[in-house]
Amino acid sequence: MLKLTNELIDAAIDGISGFISTNYSNEYHLPLDKSLELFLASNTYKALSRKENGYYWDSIPEIQKMFFNEMNNGKA
Question: Would 43 be classed as within a structural domain?
Answer without folding.
Answer: yes
